[in-house]
Design a protein that fits this description.
alpha/beta; Metallo-beta-lactamase, Chain A; six-stranded mixed sheet; 14 strands; 34% helix; 24% strand; globular; binds zinc ion; hydroxyacylglutathione hydrolase activity; Hydroxyacylglutathione hydrolase; EC 3.1.2.6; metal-binding
Amino acid sequence: MAADIRIVPCLTDNFGYLIHDRSSGATASIDAPEAAPLIAALEKEGWKLTDILVTHHHGDHVGGIAELKKKYHCRVVAPHDANAKIADADLRVEEGDVVKVGGLSARVLETPGHTLDHISYVFDDDRALFAADTLFSIGCGRVFEGTYPMMWESLLKLRALPDDYKLYCGHEYTASNVKFALTIEPDNAALQARAKQVEQQRGAGQPTIPVTLGEEKQANVFLRADVPAVAAAIGFAGESAADVFGEIRERKNNS
Ligand SMILES: [Zn+2]
C-alpha cells in the first residue's frame, strides 16, 4: 500500500482525514473541518499538506480551508458547483474526474442528496472511500438539498464498490445510528455484531472508522432499502426502494 491514512478528530464529532503518499511525500486532507488539529497531526507526522479534497460546502467541512491554504499554499479541490459556494477552490471536479495526490489517484463520484454539490473520493489502489456526509457507518446523511430518490441513487453508487473497500465517513455518529437501525432490523446478525464492536470501540475511546463496505452492506439499514424484509419491517412491502429509503430516513430524523 502506497498510502498512509490518519484519522484526525475535529470539532465535536467530525472526522478529518489525512492521506499521505510515501513515494512523493504528497499529503491530502479530505475536507478541512478545523485547521488546528490537522496542523498538529501534520506536524506530528512531519508531513506537508499539498492538497485539500473538499466533499461539500457545509461549514463543518470547509471551515479550516482558509487557514490551511495560507499556511501550506496547498491546492484546494472542490465539487463543481455553479453557485461557487466554496471559496479558495483551485480546481473544480465532477463525476469521473481523477484527482492526483502525488502518486495517489482519487476518482470522483457525484453523490448528491445531503447537498446538491456533494462528491465522494475513491482511492481505488488503496481500497479507500471517503464518503463524508453521504454514507455514515450504519447511517447516512440527512437529505437537506436533494430528494430521497436522489440520495438513494447516490447510496447505490457507493454500494456498488467492492466489499473490501474501507469507508471513511464525515462524522462519528455510529453509536446512535446503531441504536436506530436496531429498531428496524433487531434480528440482523451483522448489525448485532457491529453493535457489539461499536460499544467496545467507543468504550475504549477509539473511532468506529474505518469499516469495510462489505460489513456496511450487511448491517447498514440505509443501504438495505431494497431488501424485502426491510420494507416489510416498516410496513412498506411492495413499495419502491426509494420510498422505503425515504421512510427510514424520515424515521431517523424523528428518532
Ligand atoms: Zn454536511
